[in-house]
C-alpha cells in the first residue's frame, strides 16, 4: 500500500511516518495538513522472481493435468473390468451362506443337547446304555425343535417374497 499525499508524492505505507516527519521538519506543515487530501492506493507488488514462479506454475499445471487425465482414463477402464458382482450370484451366495450357517447351528444345537442330557443323566443312572439313550432322545428332541424353527423361518421368508412380488406387479 502506498500513501499518495496532496502534493502528489507517493510513499510506501511503512515509510510514510518518516516521510511525513521529514516533510514537517523541512516545510513546517503539520502532519494533519499533509494528510488532509492524501489517499491510500494499492501498489502492485513487482515480482522479482516472476519467471521462476511462472515456470513452477506451468510445471504444476502440467502435473495436475496429467493426474486428471490418468484419473479419467482409469475411470473409463474401470468399466471394462466386467461385472463386479452379478446380483443373482450374490443372492445365491447369500442364500448358500445362510443355509450353511443354519445347518451348522442345527448340528451344534443337537450335539450340545446330547452332551447336556448325557451329563445330567449321569446323576440319574449309572447305566451307560440308558445315558446314551437319554442323550439320543435329547438330540432327536432338539432336531425337532430346530426343524420347526427352520420351517417357520422359511415360511416367513416365502411370505415376504410373495408380498414383494405382489408389490412389483
From TrEMBL:
Cellular component, GO, one term: endoplasmic reticulum membrane
Key word Chloroplast present: no
Residues that span the membrane, as ranges: 100-120, 132-152
Record-linked Pfam families: Vma12
Keywords of the record: Endoplasmic reticulum, Membrane, Transmembrane, Transmembrane helix
GO biological process, one term: vacuolar proton-transporting V-type ATPase complex assembly
Statement: the UniProt record of this protein carries the keyword ATP-binding: no
Membrane topology: Multi-pass membrane protein
Cellular localization per UniProt: Endoplasmic reticulum membrane
Coiled coil stretches, renumbered: none
PANTHER family reported for this sequence: TRANSMEMBRANE PROTEIN 199 (PTHR31394)
Protein name listed in UniProt: Transmembrane protein
